[in-house]
Amino acid sequence: MNTQPLIVLVEDEDHLAQGLLFNLEAEGYRTHHEADGVAALDWLLTTEETPAAVLLDVMLPGRDGFSIAAALREAGSFVPIIMLTARGRTEDILEGFAAGADDYVTKPFDLEVLLARVTGVLRRLRWQAPAPAGTAALPAPPASEYVLGDRTISFDSLEIRTGDQTTQLTVMEAELLNYLVERPGKVVSRKEILENVWRVHEDTDTRAIDNFIVRLRRHLEPDPANPAHLLTVRGVGYRFAP
Q1: Mean pLDDT in residue range 47-72
Q2: For the chain, N or C: smaller number of CB within 10 Å?
Q3: What is the 3-state secondary structure (H, E, C) of 66-130?
Q4: Alpha-carbon dihedral 109, 113, 115, 119, rounded to 10 degrees
Q5: In the chain, where are the structural domains located?
Q6: CB 17 within 8 A of CB 40
């Protein structure tokens, strides 16, 4: 059995794709390449092997990267997605996060930065996976769980557990929730979330974060329409009530 991580590249610019594939393979990864959005989504939904990560271009023939990410999440696939985009506006980056992306790299990008992002998502996966028989487990990150009523939030494994049910979070959902949980009772502005959670700097405020809060409420609140924990502070942002 091949133990090298499989990286899927969805990119229609052939010269860029060939360079990325060469460098990924030189780093020890196996690769699979798709250049068309429709074909890429079909392959990702039907492949028997779960990729370690997907490098997903936004502007693709057939189907764009945003809709591919959203379709994967809707189908229950939580493979890490790193968006590759020449559209570096804050609105575009947040649209990628809202669709389910875990990270983004803006074109043109430094190859070392991209490889570091891939290494980061793979490290997270290794933390979550059990150690093979006869081998020592990797050092885990500090324990990071929070109990909220009958729900246990695990920020390391990106899960919310309720009894025998488990809800998977994307990295961005978990990071937003973790940021709020670490500041109980404090009003956190949308601008603060943009800059400190998603590393997006923008002079004007945006309400794109509301979509994330709506999804988190569905996971956490007994009555999402009347939240008791993820509270809206009108005109400012949000407050977490333990």
Answers
A1: 94
A2: N
A3: HHHHHHHHHCCCCCCEEEEECCCCHHHHHHHHHHCCCEEEECCCCHHHHHHHHHHHHHHHHHHCC
A4: -140
A5: 6-128, 145-240
A6: no
Task: Give the predicted TM-score (pTM) of the model.
Answer: 0.70
Percent of the chain with pLDDT over 90: 43
Distance CA 59, CA 36 (A): 10
Q: Which CATH number fits domain 145-240: 1.20.1070.10, 1.10.443.10, 3.40.50.10490, 1.10.10.10?
A: 1.10.10.10
Report yes or no: 216 and 176 within 8 Å, Cβ to Cβ.
yes
Query: Exposed e or buried b for every residue in 12-23, given b needs 16+ CB within 10 A?
Result: bbeeebeebbee
pLDDT tens-digit map of 161-210: 998 888 888 777 888 899 999 999 999 998 888 888 877 766 555 666 78
φ, ψ for residue 154 (rounded to 5)? -110, 110
Distance CA 206, CA 194 (A): 9
